[in-house]
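A common beginner's mistake is to predict each chain separately and then try to dock the pieces by hand. The better habit, illustrated here, is to supply every component at once so that their relative placement is modeled jointly.
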Amino acid sequence: MIKVTAKFFVNQNKIDQFIQLSKELIENTRKENGCIKYELFEDTTKNTVFSIIEEWENTQALDAHFNSKHFTEIIPQLELTVTQKIEVNIYKQII
Amino acid sequence: MIKVTAKFFVNQNKIDQFIQLSKELIENTRKENGCIKYELFEDTTKNTVFSIIEEWENTQALDAHFNSKHFTEIIPQLELTVTQKIEVNIYKQII
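With all components supplied together, the output reads:
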């Protein structure tokens, strides 16, 4: 299982747009092969900080995701709503 | 459900110590009431970056965790193994 976190620092004035775009990305992504979990979280103390936390069966499924139509179309739009670079970490579980 | 991510930037020379301490913290934490998930992940491209990704039933369980003996004893030791402040985010799921 591959775990991915993507952390977004969203412009205070673009939160609704960010959530709308994320919703579209999530709905499409959850239909993909090998997608175990793909969920959006909001920080409970900093309302401009969000994370998409994902689980994928394997790297092939994750690579296919990165090349999917919805991902390649929506991510550039999401990048217009943030105040700094999206922080992506791709993890493997060790304990 | 409360989701927590704690991201660690570990000193290259203290990775084994970090993992050993994390193991002890995780074993004790998984016994706690309301602990759904408490897992350690290593970044697949940056071997000094780790995250503990957690799920808790509610804030009471998480608060009890923050005050537990093992947490209060082990976290200060973990802080000696990192090169910058531990990045903690407490999240609620929105999609």
